[in-house]
């Protein structure tokens, strides 16, 4: 059952549609990541859910309670929603203890004990209670901001790119600690981010917005391996997209005969494979092998980018050039012939704009 529900939510700023009839269901206790390029509407969506922005039309409910119906909305402070912003937004003149307890009235029974418990929940040492924000690292500041947001036991937590200002290693460890804590507390969470890897690793559900429209929502694995169309496929990383003839759950393409993720009634369509599904092997004597010539190799640390040109084309067209990846230990030399082996299934893509949710 949906805990948070958005139905046909729209918001315009002048001639620009920041959100265009967005429908979204968020299950209770889950983590949802909202992704999209700049200007896609993800921050507007978060602000509308939090009560800091008013929709022009549409309906929002949380746990069965009506939060908004068109411009008629419940004020932000009455929604029971917590927010952690990009920079933490701690009060610089207050101690860590006072920042965490900011939303708790001074007369609250057991207030000091509650602050100590919250500090422990975000895995910070009690000695930090007397420090000011400028005496903390970036990761520590974000943990204090999370503790402050948790103080009033929110029904829903909103995370507005809270890890983007952190260094790469610290970002990963802080993100995991926050995810584990929110899961342990059973708090429904929405994360806004521009980082695809962050969304895929953090969330149970990933939502992709573009130009105010919801392109696809689903499990991270589904959006990565079974994107709706080329736009979604390429947003989530490198993709090999080829024209193919479809029949009986199989695709016939320049890489040979490849099974599909699902049956498709169309005779022709574009199919997608992720580069890691295509292995580069030494050439052999197999009669049916798919051969390619290596045109470029780009060193990238643990893995290398390898551009190859297939030696055959579907329907007599120009042979495709594929961008693949392999370990630097097995990277073939430029100009050499290699054999390509496909693992797993190819996914048929819809034409752009067709079958929108």
UniProtKB/TrEMBL annotation:
GO molecular function list: ABC-type ferric iron transporter activity; ATP binding; ATP hydrolysis activity
GO CC terms: membrane
ABC transporter domain boundaries: 4-236
Organism expressing this protein natively: Teichococcus coralli
Keyword check for Membrane: yes
Claim: Lipid metabolism is one of the keywords in the record: no
Protein name: ABC transporter ATP-binding protein
Span of the signal peptide: none
Taxonomic classification: Bacteria, Pseudomonadati, Pseudomonadota, Alphaproteobacteria, Acetobacterales
Gene3D superfamilies for this protein: 2.40.50.450, P-loop containing nucleotide triphosphate hydrolases
Pfam families the record matches: ABC_tran (PF00005)
UniProt-listed InterPro entries: AAA+_ATPase, ABC_SmlMolc_Importer, ABC_transporter-like_ATP-bd, ABC_transporter-like_CS, ABC_transpr_FbpC, Mo/tungstate-bd_C_term_dom, P-loop_NTPase
Keyword entries, A-Z: ATP-binding, Cell membrane, Ion transport, Iron, Iron transport, Membrane, Nucleotide-binding, Transport
